[in-house]
Please model this.
Amino acid sequence: MTLINGLEELKIDYDNKKLNQTETFYEMLIEKNKVMNLTRITDREDFYVKHVLDSLLIVKLIDISDQSIIDIGTGAGFPGIPIKIFFPDTKITLLDSLNKRILFLNEVIEKTGLKDISTIHGRAEEVSRDKDHREKYDLALSRAVANMSVLSELCIPFVKTGGQFIAYKSSDSKQETDDACNAVKILSGGDINVSRYKLPESEIYRNIVLINKKTSTPKKYPRNPGVISKNPL
Ligand code: SAM
Model:
């Protein structure tokens, strides 16, 4: 009931197909996790709350129907796979620099029968220089990949003017968010909006950081991988 209660609290529609796809994903994750480092969260209820409902929490903030979305540093598929399962009309791209994780996600996509979802093996800094991906997405999402300054440089170049970048952060992320103001401005983002939400079926609070993209990102960004983290904007 944890998942269903949480979905109802978030006012997200579900049916047997979506619930079965979630179960298939969980079973594949647990099986693959025995031979590959994918997640520390293995308990079923924890998976529902800390992975699935957490991934879906952004619906409190924005309407994601029909959006083209890139999930940067998706790892084992969060937040991208739960979003695709429960919002099948989204168009999702999952990006990660570790090919083993991408190969796992390809298996998940095939077995769950998800459509309009693709994977890319590559570094965000390089893929966002490709004209097929630069400023092509309505929404860039990222969870647990880097601090806000670094993450802004990795994610904002993917977003169309008028689109949005959302970072999933813990509730103690105020300092790193304040520190990212300069980076966001340079990369052509607007104000940084932080919203605090309680994760359904838990006592955990999360910060969802939303940035609107105002104009085109200057061509010199993102910089080379080493430089971004050594010398954040
Ligand atoms: N987003 C997932 C989650 O919340 O469970 C995974 C988080 S995991 C801690 C960080 C992931 O980001 C890893 O899978 C790593 O390979 C990927 N990653 C880190 N830097 C990256 C980059 N520059 N470009 C693409 N992927 C990156």
